[in-house]
Amino acid sequence: MTVPAAPSPAQRLRGRLRPGEPVVVPGVTDGLSAALARAAGFDTVYVSGAGTAAARGLPDMSILSLPELADAVRVVAEHADPVVDLDTGFGGAGAIRRAMRELARSGAAAVHIEDQPFPRRCGYLTAEPCVAVPDMLRRLDAAWASGTDLVVVARTDALLTGGLDDAVARAVAYAEAGAELVFVNGLRTLHELRAVRGAVDVPLVYNVSGSDRSPWLTRAQAAEAGVAMVLHPVQAARAAARAVQRYLAGLAADQPPAPDDLVPFEEYMALAGWDDAVAFEEGLPQRAAGSGVPRLPGGGSLWPEAAFVVAERVVVIDHFRHRLQVVCHALIG
After folding, report:
1. pLDDT score for 118
2. Are 321 and 313 in contact (CB under 8 A)?
3. Is a pLDDT exceeding 60 seen at residue 301?
């Protein structure tokens, strides 16, 4: 009987993108934060370029490498399906194709590609104009032709440098070219979001900006505005950074932390996979002492036939050795 293949991360994500049911996507930076997100009920998470760079002590200025991003995705994908910030794709068409394949192998479900120039900087901290629309469409073409099934989101940063009209025109162009979802970065009001919704006929991605520029969006507001995915890119990392700052300030002042400020040790170890690893080890066959023959947890032999074959071969070898000794004695005598 043929066992059906498990759905890919991209297929799972497409199944979650249902009209009127926005997917809320928290940003994570490592396996522990991904495990926390999954424990909180999130099966889709966001791997931010800025967040991943910051976790390595790097600024969001095209310094993070593709191998570093792919490694972060691989770790996070052990817990939930990642939507990945691909920035500008690490270069030209060939670089974009390679990046798409690397991220697909790492377990990504989706990527968003943007129209900033390369090398790029955090969109909230630059005044560089976006590339021409045909150049961005070439980036999208490279992603679509990469041979992966990743969901491709077209992002424009034009609102931050060119204004709302430019951003809407680009969103329309990207949607008409075939983008599954469109992401206008830097929206400041629901009025701007509705202006994009009124012009674009594909689902939208809304970014609750890590820079605090874009307002919080409830699920009901997102559904009403045609938003399919709501990103919270670096808020969890910022919350964690504040908690670490407070702990270290107390440590420097020789003050112990309050019990509620720390996750209990057993819970911390469980989040890192302790319980799963113990259950795996205890589920392995038990070996009888000195026999080398595996024993099942109930005590039965795992390979009784194998043990019989080994014993039979020993008998045959002993018989052959006896015959050889008889022949040798005859020749000597």
Report:
1. 80
2. no
3. no
What's the per-residue H, E or C state across the chain? CCCCCCCCHHHHHHHHCECCECEEEEECCCHHHHHHHHHCCCCEEEECHHHHHHHCCCCCCCCCCHHHHHHHHHHHCCCCEEEEECCCCCCCHHHHHHHHHHHHHHCCCEEEEECCCCCCCCHHHCCCCCCCHHHHHHHHHHHHCCCCCCEEEEEECHHHHCCHHHHHHHHHHHHHHCCCEEEECCCCCHHHHHHHHHHCCCCEEEECCCCCCCCCCCHHHHHHCCEEEEEECCHHHHHHHHHHHHHHHHHHCCCCCCHHHCCCHHHHHHHCCHHHHHHHHHCCCEECCCCCCEECCCCCECCHHHHHHHHHHHHHHHHHHHHHHHHHHHHHC
Q: How far is CA 314 from CA 170, 266, 291, in A?
A: 78, 51, 15
How far is it, in rounded angstroms, from Cα 53 to Cα 89?
Answer: 15
pLDDT in tens, 164-190: 999 999 999 999 999 999 999 999 999
Rounded to whole angstroms, how far apart are CA atoms 323 and 249? 84
The predicted-structure confidence for 245-265, as pLDDT tens digits, reads as follows 999 999 999 999 998 999 999
Residue 68, pLDDT above cutoff 50: yes
Q: How far apart are CA 248 and CA 234, in angstroms?
A: 21
**φ, ψ at 222 (rounded to 5°):** -65, -45
The pTM for the full model equals 0.83
Extract the tokens encoding 161. Answer: 């440098």
